[in-house]
Structure formats: C-alpha cells, structure tokens
Amino acid sequence: MEPEENPNRPPSRLDCIKYFNALWSCYSPFHQMQNYYRYGVFDNCSSKWRDLVDCLTLKTKSKAEVEEMLMAREKARPHFWTYRTVDEASANWWKMYKHRVMMSSPPKTAGFPAPPPKSAAPKKR
User: Fold this and answer.
1) pLDDT per residue over 90-125, tens digit each?
2) What residue spans carry the region label Disordered (predicted)?
3) Which of 14, 82, 111, 112 is the most exposed place for a label (fewest CB within 10 A)?
C-alpha cells in the first residue's frame, strides 16, 4: 500500500534518496558518454549536487519551515510557458531558427514550383 493511501500513517518527512540516486546515475559512464555525445562536454553534475544538498538542508528545518520555503520557491519559479504577442513570438522564432532556415534548401512541394533564388532579378522587356 502506498504511503498516501494509508490514512493511519503520519506523513513522511522529506526523502532525499531520489536526489542521491540521481547524483549517482549522473556519474555513470553511460550518462557521461551520452552527455559528451550530445553536448561535447562531460556533465559535472552540479545541479544534482545542488538538489541533494538542498534536500539535506531542508531536512534540518521544521515541517512548517519546509512547507513555507517550498511554497515560496513554487511562487518564485517562472511559468512553464512564455506568453508572447504574435509579433514577439515571430521575432523570437526568427532569432532562434533563422540560421536553420537560411542554411536549408527550399522545400520541393508537389505541384508547386520552387521559389526563385533571391539573387535572380526579373528581366525587363
């Protein structure tokens, strides 16, 4: 039975084992090679250390202090989505992906000719 399902059991204190396991797996050869392959550098696991130390620090506080700190962090955390107007979103998209659009060749769609290259000027008659 899960701890949440048992009403007679008191609520458990903060458990840091998941942060320890995350730190342990961060130093595994598989994770380090995967990080090196993806980003070209090894992972120093600083975020995992920070999470573990933070959890251990929270364990020294009273339950009321922990709840208050966690609620304050939740409120201070930025929203998952960034809300933008259409113009802001367009400008951000071009800033992020312009290099890919400029490097790729124009798509060849069935039934429609490819757009002319920008360097070709229309001929005057």
Assistant:
1) 998 889 888 777 776 655 655 555 555 666 555 665
2) 105-125
3) 111
- Total-model pTM: 0.52
Element (H, E) at 48: helix 46-59
Cα Rg of the chain (Å, integer): 26
Q: What phi and psi values does residue 32 have, to the nearest 5 degrees?
A: -65, -40
Q: Write out pLDDT tens, residues 28-67.
A: 999 999 999 999 999 999 999 999 999 999 999 988 998 9
Joined tokens for residue 53: 């130390």
- Phi, psi values for residue 117, rounded to 5°: -65, 150
Run of H or E including 30 = helix 29-39
**111/105 Cα distance (integer angstroms):** 17
